Amino acid sequence: MESVGERIKIWFRFIPREGWFPQDTEGLWATKFGDDTALVRNIPFLQDGVSEGDVVRYQTDADGRHWAVGRVSTVGNCTIRVVPIPTGPLGRSPHAVHERLSAFGLGGEVFREDFPMVAFTAPADADFAGIKALLHQGQEEGWWHYEVGCGTDAWWNA
User: Fold this and answer.
1) 17: closest CA among 26, 9, 8?
2) What angle, rounded to 10 degrees, do the helices at 128-140 and 94-101 form?
3) What stretches of the chain show up as alpha helix (H) in DSSP?
4) Torsion of CA 136, 114, 89, 135, to 10 degrees
5) I need a surface site. Which of 7, 22, 48, 139 has the fewest CB within 10 A?
6) What is the pTM of this model?
């Protein structure tokens, strides 16, 4: 039996996007928060609408797998995904992406070596306007493509 505070994996189902990865699920590490809730502990690469630090509700299936059924609360963090353009000035380097965004102190994870997408958590108190300006500049100058997987009102209004 799992106890509060125990690390578990929460699975999310979604419809695969055309031209994107064929997966229709993503597992995120979480800390059990209550009987059917957990605190998300890593950055989603594929799932939209959830960010590191959010609390989600889940149901456990007959095989013991925990499936997310909705977000309960958020701390205001945002999820940003950045893919360096191989022919651009950063090449395929996730390290170069991290360096460009290092001034903002963002934590990030790399998807895989053959697809160096970097997923970042932008904390609720981050300089959203500055991050957005740099992301836009990088896209305009051919460094990367980016998307916001989970944005808050503060993000969109910055």
Assistant:
1) 26
2) 140
3) 94-101, 128-140, 153-157
4) 10
5) 22
6) 0.91
